[in-house]
Amino acid sequence: MSAADTPINPMNPAVPGAGATVAQEWRSRFAHTNYINAHYGIKSWLLTKDHKRIALLYLASVTVFFALGGAYAVAIRMELLTPAGDFVQAHTYNKLFTQHGVIMIFFFLIPSIPAVLGNFLVPLMIGAKDLAFPRLNLLSWYIYLVGALFTVWALLNGGIDTGWTFYVPYSTSFSNTYVVAAGLGIFITGFSSILTGLNFIVTIHTMRAPGMTWFRLPLFIWSHYAASLIMVLGTPVIAITVLLVALERLAHIGIFDPRLGGDPVLFQHMFWFYSHPAVYIMVLPSMGVVSEIVATFSRKNIFGYSFVAFSSLAIAVFGFLVWGHHLFTSSQSVYAGMIFSFVSFAVAIPSAVKVFNWTATLYKGSISYDTPMLYALGFIGLFTVGGLTGLFLAALGMDVHLTDTYFIVAHFHYIMVGGALMGYLGGLHYWWPKITGRMYPEGWGRFSALIIFVGFNLTFFPQFLAGYMGMPRRYHAYAEEFQVLNVMSTAGASILGFGLLIPGIYFLWSMRYGKFAPPNPWPATGLEWRTLSPPPTENFASTPIVTWEAYEFRPMEEMEVIGAGPGDTSRPVQPAHGMHSDLTGS
Amino acid sequence: MSAADIHLTDAEQHASTALQHHFDNMEQQREAGTLGMWVFLITEIMFFGGLFTAYVLYRTLNAPSFAAASSGLNVKMGAVNTVVLICSSLTMALAVYYAQTGVRRMQLILLLVTWVLGATFLVVKTFEYAEKFEKGHVPWLNFTWNTPEAPEAMPAGANVPAIRMFYWIYFVMTGLHAFHMIIGLGMLGFLIYFAWRGRYTPEYHAPVELGGLYWHFVDIVWIFLFPLLYLLGANLHH
Predict the structure, then answer these.
(1) Which of A152, A445, B14, B91 has the most CB atoms within 10 Å of its CB?
(2) pLDDT at B150
(3) Where are the alpha helices (DSSP H) in A30-133?
(4) Is the pLDDT of residue A505 over 80?
(5) Among 1.10.275.10, 1.20.210.10, 1.10.10.10, 1.10.3720.10, what is the CATH number of A42-513?
């Protein structure tokens, strides 16, 4: 054992000597063997069955796709800076927004929270050693990668221009782009999503630690359970739909083609049967993240735990019954439209339950405005805006006016970026100390959270106005009267993009230079905080036995690391920065 | 799952090398596997569900055409295949029973019989597809219907595009089903190999049970496909 291999106190790390390899350095910097330094080498990552390592594989891949999708957004906003179509041609523009949508939705938003944070945290939070099917978990990452590469291949070879919605008959009969290749990419990636959902459902059912009853589960788990139900029930339908589109395009089976007796509206039904619930795949996990963060940073038990838990399930169930609100202006019967409109209003109820309960949790809480909390508060505000504007669109008459305008674009970006992305970033900051064993720089974190919030609103709020005034979506040129709003939007996008770069930089920086994280830096109540940071491969030194309720704040002495050996007691469980060590609450 | 029923003795826990490291005991592992298979089968139902939806929609819109098209299918072959699959489900269920009770010989024989029955189904299916090709009923390759040389059922209200669409739905659905059968045969091969090696005991036979669940599912899909596709036009004459 060389000098650099000698374990040293993580609270006081010595600088490793010159010439130490990266591997030796990682080992030397942590006093304990953890999932990161347990094995070395590229093979130990690519063939790992450890859910925590697979989460990091996903983290790396979704970050790449987020950057790629972001690059398309940059090009879109560049074009829309001026009314004339001068930056790119109409056909190129069609490809830009299509590819932005396809990549962001299928390769970033859907896997983001479940496959990264969920993968990492579901076993930790329920006190299990791993997900129920570790091999399937790794397989799901490879499937994701194959699907993603398939789609990237399609993009590099000329791209697709159908819109991420692949509406027939344009996608089947007229578009002269790589629809089948991109569709197969989505088909394949869908199976990775199915496997992740299946793994979560089985894990949550069968692998809970002794004493971890359903109503002691963190709300993060409830929301992932609900999202998994959607992944498992919805994704196969998009798979068969995409398969039929491919068959229609290649072999003209006629199923969506009116000339051959088919009905294009059937495609819209089948597409939205998945794609509307898919919005809840994106936002439900985010809501779970927000529940964790709000409880931790207001030092309070979540108000109305069981209501928040069941509202997740209610959203998942109602979410399957509202797809027809995307078809109000198609040939759908007006009676069906009325029912879909009604159910769409109904789905607002469980969403509102969550918002009100988070707000009630904040009430008289001991609130601290750390970075994750800033993102969570941002989520609550932006999701509310996105949700309420969704009600405009669920109203039959209003929808006719707003369909295919920028109002829709603004609405779903408030849900997907303001909701899902804010939750993802908040969660990434919140669990970063657990994932890497390092603290990110708090000052920069808060700064960038504010920048992102401002940039986001400046980007998308003007789009509500432009859309309400009648600016259609998916055109590369627009009437001059919309220019002011579009310039605001492009300026906002620049700020947003800048804001998003900052975490990218300091997260990388913190992996090497960040302060070492104690097991429970915030301090929070979940089981994941009762093991070392980063956790050992087996997650806990001994199987936790849960005797407390969810979000039960207790004195720090009672919340030490589970199964900590005598060697670990020297390490105090310290709050990261200036928090009260007395956690008995208000 | 209560805390009580997962606490087996250490000896029990480590009795079998089949226990994967992240499970506490065999019971938990078996439960996880079974639930996982059920959830997977639910995804399969949703997958086929999209096609059934399309079938129901177009059948409702084109009832006479679908009946006419259905009369072109070979009900005898379909019926034989139905019987073959139901028998294979029985032998599969018995194989699971003998795995549970630890009768290795019977388990092996029944798995083999199941495999043979499954293969028989696919052979009959192949003949059926060939017959469709000879009659010119394969869309994309050689679709014709009711030509002067080969008169076929054409009741009032029927039209050739809808008949062609029926054949598409027929080929996509039975093709997907056959694909699942092929996967099932591969899975049975795996089970037969390990049963022959004596891997499955009354304590550890979860793969046989899970394989059984899958096999029954594929069988049930056919039980729905047969009447929907074959019997619809059985009263029409060619």
Answers:
(1) A445
(2) 77
(3) 42-46, 51-79, 90-102, 110-111, 119-126
(4) yes
(5) 1.20.210.10
What confidence score (pLDDT) does residue B11 get? 42
**What is the mean predicted confidence (pLDDT) over A236-241?**
94
Kindly identify which residue of chain A lies nearest to residue B158, measuring between CA atoms. A261
Burial of A407 (0-12, 13-18, 19+ CB in 10 A): buried
How far, in Å, CA of A84 to CA of A476, rounded? 8
Q: What are phi and psi of A130, to 5 degrees?
A: -165, 180
Q: Which of B49, B51, B140 sits opposite A251 (nearest CB)?
A: B140
Structural domain containing residue B118:
74-138+162-227
Tell me if B205 is assigned to some domain. Answer: yes
Nearest to A91 by CA among A176, A172, A186: A176
Q: What distance in Å separates the CA atoms of residue B132 and residue A135, rounded to the nearest whole number? A: 42
DSSP conformation letters of A530-583:
GS-SSPPTTSSSS-----S-TT----GGGG--TT--GGGTTS----SSS--S--
DSSP bridge pairs for A472 = A405
Query: Which H or E element spans position B119?
Result: helix B104-134
| Within-domain flag for B107 | yes
pLDDT of residue B154: 81
pLDDT bracket for residue A11 (50, 70, 90):
very low
Residues of chain B with pLDDT under 70: 1-17, 235-238
Tell me how many domains chain B contains. Answer: 1
With CB atoms and an 8 Å threshold, state whether A240 touches B159. Answer: no
The mean predicted confidence, pLDDT, of chain A is 89
Per-residue confidence at A585, pLDDT binned at 50, 70, 90? Answer: very low
DSSP A271-331: HHHHHHHHHHHHHHHHHHHHHHHHHHHTTSPPTTHHHHHHHHHHHHHHHTT-GGGG-TTTT
Which range among A246-250, A453-457, A515-519, B12-16 has the greatest average pLDDT? A453-457
- Residue from A137, A248, A255, A543 whose CB has the most chain B CBs within 10 Å, to mutate: A255
pLDDT tens by residue, A265-311: 999 999 999 999 999 999 999 999 999 999 999 999 999 999 999 99
Cβ contact A134–B53 (<8 Å): no
For residue A438, the SS3 value is strand
| CATH at residue B220 | 1.20.120.80
On the question of pLDDT at A23 being above 70, the answer is no
Residue B62, in any domain of the structure: no
Instruction: State the pLDDT at residue A2.
Output: 41
CB A572 within 8 A of CB A518: yes
CB A411 within 8 A of CB A386: yes
Q: Please measure the distance between the N-terminal and C-terminal CA atoms of chain A and give it in whole angstroms.
A: 50
CB contact under 8 Å between A251 and B43, yes or no, is: no
* A107 within 8 A of A186, measured Cβ to Cβ: no
- Distance separating alpha carbons of residues A75 and A398, to the nearest angstrom: 31
pLDDT in tens, A113-131: 999 999 999 999 999 999 9
Chain B residues whose beta carbon lies within 8 Å of the beta carbon of residue A233: 42-43, 46
Q: What is the pLDDT of residues A151-192, one digit of tens each?
A: 999 988 888 999 999 998 899 888 888 899 999 999 999 999
Nearest by CB: A206 against B3, B35, B43 = B35
Distances (CA, A) of A512 to A34, A107, A362, A505: 16, 28, 35, 12
Contacts of A274 (CB under 8 A, 6+ apart): A234, A235, A237, A238, A241
Distance CA A295, CA A277 (A): 27
Tell whether the torsion through CA atoms of A568, A569, A572 and A573 is positive or negative.
positive
